[in-house]
Amino acid sequence: MVFHINLACWDHYPRNQLARLVENHPSLFPDGVPDFVSRSEPVPYPAWALKDSPWTDPWGCRWETSISGFIGAVNQHPLQDLDRIASFTPPDPDQTTHWYPVTWHKGTAPHGGSIGFFDCLRSGEIGHGHTFLKLVDLVGYQTALLALVDDDPRISRLLAMLEEFNRGLVERFIEYGEVEWLGYAEDLGMQQGPMLSPELFRTHILPSYRRIMQPAHNHDAVIHMHSDGDLRSLIPDLLTLPIRVLNIQDRVNGLDWIAENLKGRVALDLDIDRQHVTVAGTPQQIRQHVHDVLHTLADPAGGLIITFGLYPGTPLENAAALMDALEEGMHNKRLWGS
């Protein structure tokens, strides 16, 4: 069970109430409240999630957010004119990830994101939005899709740059971080269907995924992939990759569909709904949803992680009900499926 509290929550909710919830659920929060809360310090927002403070990433994409703690959107795509790709110089994976500068040291892996990290293993993450979404960041969504449909050689060149950079990160996480677990996070789904057709994904993105996952697979690292949205039409292709843990959302894909198509084939890291039941439902409905998840997907043989991200807008009484239900699910095997 993973319960992630977005940094914005510490400014949105009364700190003492949120801290009390953390303290009252030690199975979910074995490290207790964050140090900055204990010291009554300001929230340490990263540069890319700071309100009214535009930030340019290592690729030259300009980001902006209206709520501190939330990663915003790119409002300036540096390569929207595809002719600029010919003279573009990509960042160096020896000096930076997709998000932050890095100095590689033997025996340690840089930690700059929250998806795919588990402290019980030496973990790393190559950066959320590493291939398709980075392509969209660089050239814009419409331009990216049209260029992929046209099989434009300029977009192929840019994809090759991204792949070389990503493979460089993977190799460094293996060489320096000696990772046992490596995260590949990239949202591919919308509320209905994927952001690109299965044919475009299969032709342009899947081969790159395979090549950047191969070194980690050869290293026998656990490959964790996160992707939000409706992935159902992409799952047959994704299952051809050496993914050992797949992090997907529950309601948009459907618990029964997930059970029928994925349970037992890959370890599931299930994102609990953050749009409907946990925001607008009652505590009893939240408890029932967790019970449904456990009954449908849990297996005494293993293979299920349940993940929830708390963001402003979820009533604290609902957050408390979810924490209670998750801790109960951790300790009460009678709730598990078979």
Bulk shape: globular
Spans of at least 5 consecutive residues whose pLDDT stays below 50 are none
Mean pLDDT reading: 94
* Helix/sheet category: alpha/beta
> Total number of helical segments?
12
Tell me the major beta sheet.
Answer: 7 strands, parallel
Helix content range: 25-40%
Query: In which order are the strands of the major sheet placed?
Result: 1-10-9-8-7-6-5
Beta-strand percentage? 5-15%
Give the oligomeric state. Answer: single chain
Strand element count? 10
- Round the Cα radius of gyration to an integer and report it: 20 Å
Succession of helices and strands: EHHHEEEEHHHEHEHEHEHHEH
How far apart, in Å, are the first and last alpha carbons?
18 Å
Question: Brief description of this entry?
Answer:
With 338 residues, the protein is α/β, with parallel strands linked by helices. Helix content is 37%, strand content 13%.
Write structural notes for this entry:
The protein has helices at 9-12, 15-23, 35-38, 132-139, 141-149, 153-175, 198-218, 235-238, 255-261, 277-280, 283-297, 316-331; strands at residues 2-5, 55-56, 62-64, 73-76, 123-125, 181-185, 222-226, 245-249, 267-271, 304-310. It is an alpha/beta fold and 338 residues long. The mean pLDDT is 94.
